[in-house]
Design brief:
Layout (H helix, E strand, L loop, with lengths): L29 E5 L9 H5 L8 E5 L7 H6 L5 E4 L3 H7 L4 E8 L4 E6 L7 H6 L2 E4 L5 H10 L4 E4 L7 H5 L3 E6 L3 H7 L4 E5 L9 E7 H6 L1 H20 L2 H10 L5 H10 L1 H4 L2 H6 L6 H13 L19
Parallel strand pairs: 1-2, 1-3, 6-7, 6-8
Antiparallel strand pairs: 3-10, 4-10, 5-8, 5-9
């Protein structure tokens, strides 16, 4: 599962691919989609998409820890990439004119997991009780939680990035997680997990966001429209029937077993399909949601000045 880290200052080393052609739409059919993590259900719709039906030849390139997707987009090394919404305002203010085209997760899958035996009822209870919280410091959601709840009763330690060793041994331990990933693994240990979405606290940026650069969009509007249409259809197909695509992704990522692929694909549906998407289509984004995010990032001093929501996303299907 994509690990929630800022990618803006990472040196471009193993992930530098050849640049996608930036020619006009009628000659620019071969493009790269750079993921920010390994092939897993959070990317299922991108692997299920029939790009050829839209006249596109798309290479879906897996990522990993430290994949500098924002930088690859900003430098024109790839045409499309997967980012989190809260990366975009910061990138734009630092000169990388990135725009969002399609938001898979309407509810962010980042969460905090602890043992069910603790009897906690909501995310605020994590911070009202003493214990250990394994979480990356300095990220927007971490700063938001600190401002809202305070960390006075907790010992904050580095994220284990999926390692459940301490979870198995310390009842008062909590850890950051993706709710479609670590809780499934935790349940297999026989120690029942309890998971709280960080979105419950009020911080809920779009996640697994298909993005491109402003420059690429200006030069290739038809290609971007076709890409979004292919992706939207791909996600519809994956949500309805994920098995074949899971098998394909498992060939690329054998570290996740077939049972977990299926369970993760099922658990994420509620985060992807909402009343908003049912009314306006998968991947939809709104000005209000972007404005709320920009206001929060400004308050947290993640960005030093607000920007207009319209700069951050585009609906290329209209």
């Amino acid at each position: 599962m994509a690990r929630y880290i800022w990618l803006l200052l990472i040196i471009l080393t193993p992930f530098i691919p050849a640049c996608d052609v930036r020619g006009p739409d009628d000659t620019n059919k071969k493009v790269t989609l750079q993921l920010n993590w390994k092939p897993e259900p959070q990317f299922g719709g991108f692997y299920a998409a029939d790009y050829k039906a839209q006249g596109l030849d798309v290479e879906v390139r897996p990522g990993g820890a430290g994949a500098p997707t924002i930088e690859l987009l900003g430098s024109g090394k790839v045409a499309f990439g997967i980012v989190s919404a809260d990366e975009i305002p910061r990138a734009r203010l630092q000169g990388a004119k990135i725009v969002a085209l399609f938001a898979v997760y309407q509810t962010h899958p980042q969460g905090i997991m602890t043992r069910a035996s603790r009897g906690l009822n909501d995310i605020g209870d994590i911070f009202k009780n003493s214990g250990i919280l394994a979480m990356e410091k300095g990220l927007p959601y971490s700063d938001f939680l600190k401002n809202k709840y305070g960390f006075d009763k907790l010992k904050i330690v580095p994220s284990p990035f999926g390692d459940l060793s301490v979870y198995r041994t310390d009842e008062n331990y909590a850890m950051q997680c993706f709710v479609t990933s670590e809780p499934l693994a935790a349940a297999k240990t026989g120690i029942k997990p309890k998971t709280f979405l960080i979105a419950e606290s009020g911080y809920n940026p779009y996640a697994t966001v298909l993005a491109t650069s402003e420059d690429y969009l200006k030069q290739n509007p038809a290609t971007c429209q076709k890409m979004v249409e292919a992706v939207r259809a791909g996600w519809r197909n994956y949500l309805d029937a994920p098995a074949a695509t899971n098998a394909k992704m498992r060939e690329l990522n054998p570290t996740m077993d077939a049972e977990t692929f299926a369970a993760s694909a099922e658990s994420q549906k509620v985060l992807i399909e909402t009343a908003e998407t049912k009314a306006n289509g998968l991947g939809v984004m709104t000005t209000d949601r972007w404005q709320t995010l920009i206001d929060q990032l400004t308050t947290l001093k993640v960005i030093d000045k607000p920007i207009a929501p319209a700069e951050c996303f585009r609906d290329v299907t209209k």
